[in-house]
UniProtKB/TrEMBL annotation:
Coiled-coil features, chain-numbered ranges: none
Residues of the signal peptide: 1-19
Keyword terms: Cell outer membrane, Membrane, Receptor, Signal, TonB box, Transmembrane, Transmembrane beta strand, Transport
Residues in TonB-dependent receptor plug domain copies: 113-235
Protein known as: TonB-dependent receptor
Family classification: Belongs to the TonB-dependent receptor family.
Domain TonB-dependent receptor-like beta-barrel: start-end pairs: 341-811
Recorded superkingdom: Bacteria
GO cellular component: a single term: cell outer membrane
Amino acid sequence: MRKNLLAVTLCLTTASAWAQSQTLTGRVQDAAGRAVIGATVVEKGTNNGTATDNEGRFTLQSRSSAPRLVISSIGYAPQEVAGGAGLSVQLTESTTSLGAVQVVGSRSQNRSVTDSPSPVDVIDLREVTTKTGQLDVNQLLQFVAPSFNSNRQTGSDGADHVDPASLRGLGPDQTLVLVNGKRQHQSALVNLFGSRGRGNTGTDLNVIPAASIERIEILRDGAAAQYGSDAIAGVINIVLKSSVKELTASVNYGAYDAKYRRDDEKFDGGNLNANVNYGLGFGEKGSFINATLDYNKREHTQRAAVPAPDGLARREYGDPEVSNASVYLNSKFALSDKSHAYVFGGYNKRKGDAFAWTRFADDDRNVPAIYPNGFDPIITSDIDDFSAVAGVRTNLGGWELDLSNNYGSNRFHYGVRNTLNTTLGAASPTSFDAGGFQLRQDVVGLSATRNYTSVLNGLNLAAGLEWRKEWYSLFAGEESSYKNYDPASELAGGSQGFPGFQPGDEIEADRTNFGAYADAELSVTPQWLLAGALRFENYSDFGSTLNYKVATRYNVTEFLTLRGTFNSGFRAPSLAQINFNSTFTNFINGNPVEVLLARNNSAVTQKLGVPSLKQETSNSANVGLTSRLGSGFSVTLDGYYIKVKDRVVLTSQFGDDDPVIGPDLQALNVGQAQFFANAADTRSLGLDVVLSHSLMLGKSRLNSSLAANLNNLRIDRVRTSGKLAGRDEEFFGKREQAFVKASAPPSKINLTFDYQVGRFSTLLRFVRFDKVKLIDWDGNDMNYDARVTTDLTLSYALTNHLQFSVGSTNLFNRYPTLFNPQLTETGGAWDPVQMGANGRFYFAKLQARF
C-alpha cells in the first residue's frame, strides 16, 4: 500500500512539474510610464513567481490553462491581471482610501510609503518567512530590521516566556504597536531581569502568528502626537492578511547544535511550527473573511556546561520550553457602496517551562529527604492573550469616518514545579500555584479624514477622539507558595525558584484616558510637503499632556528627496509599573538574597519620599534623504536625536544594612529592596542606513541590501528624591545604567544577498552585532565582543504549489563572549545580548500555496 501511495504521489508530482507550460511576458510601469524595477510577479495560488528587470520586464513559465498574475511592489497598490504574452501593466501608488489599512506615519488618503516625510520600513512577511529560519515575529524582525532588537531571556522569570523587544535602543514600552492601525494592548508582565527591557513592560508580538501577517510597517520616528502614549521610539504596525481564494500552509522544523551540554546529545531546542491560512471572499463589494491557525512547539536548550571557578553556578541553563497555539481572524463586510464593517483579532494560548537557579544537595534551601541530589526548580507559565476589534467605516459628505471599539487582555499565571517550601520540611509539596497578574484594555475611537485636492496641490485634514480604559490586577498564589511556616529557623519560605505572590501583593487598579488629535498635510507644490499634528491626552491618574509634531519633505529632483521631522512625545507609566509588588529571590555572586520590589505607593516608598510615577516626556528629531541612483539602486539615510526626560526605571537594590531603609527591610524579613522611579534622563543619537540594489542576470535576479543602525545612548542625569536625594550611585548605579544602555548594541549591520533563477533561490545574510558592555556583580566591566552571524537558505519549488527550503541560521556557530556564570545576571556563561546564546540552528520547511 505504501509503495502504491508513493507511486501515485510521484506521478502527480511529475505530471505537475512536466505539464504543458506557457510563457507569460510583460512590462510593469508606474503612472508616469517609468519602469518599476524589482516588482514581484506571482502566479496566483502558487509559489511560481519572478521579478521585473531593469526595464520593468518579466518572463514567467506557467503550467496553468488560465493563469492569473498578482503584481506588487512596495509603495504601489497590488494588481491582479490575466496572464498572457506581451502584457502591459501600470501600477498606481498605494493610498489609504476607504477599505485599505493606512500606511503608518500618515493619515493622508493619498500618501504612499515612498513619499512619507518620516522613515518607514515595510517588511513583506511572505518574502521573509519563505526564505529565513526564524519562526516567530520577534526573531524575524531581530534579523531583518537593524533598528529592532529582541533576544530570548533565560533565568529571568516571566521574561523567559515573553521576549522583550526594543526599537532604536530605547525600552520595549517606548514603542507603540498597532494592528491594522489600531492600538494593541501590552503584556501584563514587568521585566525584572536580563539585559533588555529591565523594569519595562511591553507588547508581546509573538501572540500574533507570522502566518496571519501580510506586512509589518516600522515607523522609525517619534509619533506620540499622532498615535498617543508609548510612541517615543516609533510605531510598529502589523497589517493582517486580506487575501481570498488562496490557501497557504507550511510545516517547519529546526534544532540547535547542542554545544555546551553536559551529555552526548548532538541537537536540542527542537522547534516545530505548523500553520494554515485561508481567505473566503463573498459578494461583489470586497467582503472577506481571512483566518489563520498556528501551532508552535519549542523545546528546551541546555547551555550550562561552562564551569565557574568555584563550581557550577547552575545545572540547568537555556531557553524555556514553550507551546504556543493561535487563531487569528481578519474580515470586512460591505454595508453599502460607501460603508463597510470590519472585525479582526485573535486568541493565543501559551504554556511554558523555564529553568530557575539550581539548589544543590547541601544548600540550606534544599530538603535532602525530597531531593538527595539537589533540584532545579521549573517556573511554569500559563498565558492567555485575547484581542478583538470591531468598527464601521463610511464616507459622509466627503469625510471618511471610522468608529471602532478595541478590547484586549493579557493574563499571566505562574506555577512552580520540581521545587519545595523548605520551611515545610519533608512534608512539602513539590509543585505550587504561584499566582499572577492580568492587564486589560478597552478603546473606543472615532476618526475623520478628508482630502481637498483644490487647495494648492492638495490638503489632507484628519481629526479624532479616543477614550481608553485600562485595568490591572495581581492575584495571590496558594498559601504554601509564599508562606514561611518556621520563621524562627531563618529559612527562606515559599516555593523555591519563584515565591508566590502574597495576599498583601494583590491589587485591583484601573484608570481612564481621553485623547483628541488633529493633523494636516499640505502639498505646497508638487515637490514640497508640510505636515503637522497636535494631540491632547488626559489621564485620570496623573493629569494632562499636549504634544506636537512638524514634518516636511522636499523632492529636490526625481531621484533625490530630503525629509525632516521634529516632535515632542510622552509615555504614561504602565499600570503594572505603578502597582506591581513582589518578593523574589535574586542570586548575587551565586548567593540567594530575598528582594522586595515595592509598589510605587507602598509604605516603603512613601517613607523614603519617592514621588508617584509620572509620564516620561521626550523631544526628538529626524533628518534624512532618499535617493534612487541609477537603475535598480536606492539609498536611504536618516539621522535621529531622541531626548527622554523622567524615564521610568527599576532602581538599584538597597540592602537591609542601609542607614535609611535598613530597619524597615529587617522588619519585613527581606535582604534588599528596589522600586520604580522617574530616575533617569537619557539622550540618543543615531543613524539608519538602507542601501538596496536589484540586478537582472539573464533569466536570474540578484537582490542585494545593506541596512544598518548606529546608535549611541547616554544617561545625562540621575534623578534622586526624598530621603535618598543625592545618592545617585546607590539610587540608579552604573550596573543598572549598563542594562539600559545594552537594550541595543551600538551598531547592527545587515548585509543580504537574495538570488533566484528558475525554481531555485538562495538567501545569504550576514549580521554584525557590535560590542556590548555590562557590569558584573563585583563591579567589573563585562565586554561582550562584536560578533558576526551568517544565515544561509536554499529553496526549490517542487511544483507550482509546493516549495521546500533547508538552511541554517548562525551557520558558523557563534556565541557571545564567555564569562564566569557566578558573576552574570542570569547564572549562565553570558547574558542575553546581541544574537542570543543558542548557537547554530538547522531547519527545513515545506510550504504549500493553492
